[in-house]
Amino acid sequence: MRRRTDTESGFTLIELLFSVATIAVIAGIGIPVYLSFSARNDLDIAATTLAQSYWRARTLAAASDGDSPWGVATGSGAVTLFKGASYATRDPSYDERYDLAGSVTVSGVSSVVFAKFTGVPQTTGTTTFANGSGARTLFINAQGTVTY
After folding, report:
1. What is the CATH number of the domain that holds 50?
2. How many folded domains does the chain comprise?
3. What pLDDT was estimated at residue 52?
4. SS3 for 126?
5. Looking at CB atoms within 10 Å, which of 28, 60, 73, 86 has the fewest?
6. Residue 135: domain span
């Protein structure tokens, strides 16, 4: 004969429901925080990408790489480093394209060209990246220094 005990191991339905509810609460708090962080990160990446592209174009122009001015164009979801006096007359074989997150919109200065030898920008002004969580604004001055 087998003896029956009341100390059988396992989970009760209440314990399982409590565990599922706890996980749901944690996910309910964590997902919006993650989405907010992700949106802010997209803006930071866009601003850093543009600032580094300005620096690279200025350096290439000052070094007279390819005996040509260099520039940076923003728009259509990307930042493009190009060789030439303007984006329209550039040499596309030298393009360096950096895609931006789909949620980021761009406004302001769309193209900056740096002069050969001096590295001085022909255009100054601000470029703003925005999405649902905020905005980041970059300013390029007459010496080619970028602040953001």
Report:
1. 3.55.40.10
2. 1
3. 97
4. strand
5. 28
6. 13-147
